[in-house]
Design the sequence.
């Protein structure tokens, strides 16, 4: 596994939204499941990347713009003991925003990692931030940008209760478009998205959601290894 040194650590957040989005019965089971992780390797061979500091600045600024379009990604999953619900809190609460980590690894070669037929899974894990999800409030998204020998790695970790595979890619497409300075393309990616919970009409309503949450996550606000086999 490569040695990775964290050189900078901060939080990226859009203007806070007064949104509290209760999870539905479709989303509640995912509170306790593993996070979604993605890592992207950019090899310097055959192309000219901007200086690392400039690249980090562009990624940070475009991430902030993307979060303004997708505010739940900058929120926290919280437990509401008064009702037994879990929800995404998009307000400016303590710990809100997306952790943005800048790191470097002098012994990880981007060209080798990108070209290996057998992926170095341990190396890839080192380039993805660990999402804080053991208990609620839990993070929704964290980002790590790592300077490698001959390239850059961009890793993201996202909570499965908030995103599925398709929405991960929509977020990444919107972020990439914003980073290119193509605001029209970024807006097109998120066009038509709604966070209105009223459109989710399930038999049993709120009580069905709460019973589903109790079944899969009986020890909230603890959310990891709830079933202590």
Sequence:
């Amino acid at each position: 596994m490569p040695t990775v040194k964290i050189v900078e650590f901060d939080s990226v957040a859009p203007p806070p939204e007064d949104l509290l989005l209760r999870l539905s019965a479709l989303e509640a089971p995912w509170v306790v499941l593993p996070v979604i992780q993605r890592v992207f390797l950019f090899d310097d061979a055959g192309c000219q990347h901007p200086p690392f500091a400039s690249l980090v600045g562009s990624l940070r600024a475009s991430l902030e713009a993307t979060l303004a379009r997708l505010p739940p990604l900058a929120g926290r999953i919280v437990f509401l003991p008064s009702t037994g619900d879990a929800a995404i809190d998009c307000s400016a609460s303590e710990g809100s925003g997306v952790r943005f980590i800048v790191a470097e690894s002098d012994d990880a070669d981007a060209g080798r990692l990108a070209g290996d037929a057998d992926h170095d899974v341990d190396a890839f894990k080192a380039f993805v931030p660990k999402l804080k999800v053991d208990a609620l409030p839990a993070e929704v998204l964290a980002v790590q940008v790592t300077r490698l020998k001959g390239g850059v790695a961009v890793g993201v970790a996202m909570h499965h209760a908030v995103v599925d595979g398709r929405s991960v890619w929509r977020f990444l497409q919107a972020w990439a478009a914003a980073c290119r300075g193509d605001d029209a393309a970024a807006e097109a990616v998120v066009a038509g998205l709604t966070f209105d919970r009223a459109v989710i009409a399930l038999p049993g309503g709120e009580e069905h959601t709460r019973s589903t949450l109790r079944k899969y996550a009986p020890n909230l606000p603890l959310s990891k290894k709830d079933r202590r086999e």
Q: What stands out?
A: The chain has one domain: 5-216. The beta strands are 5-12, 20-22, 36-43, 76-80, 85-89, 98-109, 138-139, 141-149, 151-158.
